[in-house]
Structure prediction request, 71 residues.
Amino acid sequence: MRKPEEQEWEQIMRVLMESLGLQITANFRLYDPYEECAVIGVVERVDPYTRTFVVDGEQFKMADIIGATTV
Prediction:
């Protein structure tokens, strides 16, 4: 897996903020060396200092996101 390019990262951040602000369900693909991982839900919180986000009470690292779309 490769890291998202700048344009892809802009899309990921847009989806994060739309989900948080408009309560829209989002689908995030996360990097995992052993399996394909996805987080689907509404973003409850984004912490710019720790670069994490919360969906359904679980915290995830923004750096692990490799793709994002709204559902």
In short: Residues 30 and 65 are 4 Å apart (CA to CA). DSSP finds one helix and six strands in the chain. The beta strands are 26-30, 37-41, 43-47, 52-55, 58-61, 65-70.
